[in-house]
Amino acid sequence: MCCGKDEAELRRRAAATGRDLSALRADAIAGSPSEVVDRIGQFAETGASTIYLQVLDLDDLDHLELLANEVLPQV
């Protein structure tokens, strides 16, 4: 998963993990906090009750903070 406050931050985070942003958006969970919440909601609509978010760059603590503050309270 990859989340960013804006497109530049999102692209930077995807590049830092060597992943293509378009592929992440198509096959995983990637986007702004609201896009990530919407994507998680799509999984919930299909019956998923648990989701695991894999963050590949464990040194990017700001990424984890963004998820904790802006995504997790909404799901």
Taking all Cα atoms into account, the compactness measure Rg is 12 Å
Assembly classification: single chain
How many domains would you count in the coordinates? 1
Order of helices and strands: EHHEHH
Main beta sheet: 2 strands, parallel
Helicity range of the residues? 40-55%
Mean pLDDT over all positions:
95
Count of distinct strands: 2
How much of the sequence is in beta strands? 5-15%
Q: Count helical runs.
A: 4
Characterization of this structure:
By secondary structure, the protein is mainly alpha-helical. The protein has one domain (2-74). It has four helices and two strands, in the order βααβαα. It has helices at 7-16, 21-27, 33-45, 61-71; strands spanning 2-3, 30-31. It has a two-stranded parallel ribbon with strand order 1-2. α3 packs across α4. The two termini are 15 Å apart. 17% of the residues are buried.
State the main characteristics.
4 helices; globular; 75 residues; 55% helix
Concise structural overview:
This protein is mostly helical and 75 residues long.
Secondary-structure map:
Blueprint (H helix, E strand, L loop, with lengths): L1 E2 L3 H10 L4 H7 L2 E2 L1 H13 L15 H11 L4
Parallel strand pairs: 1-2
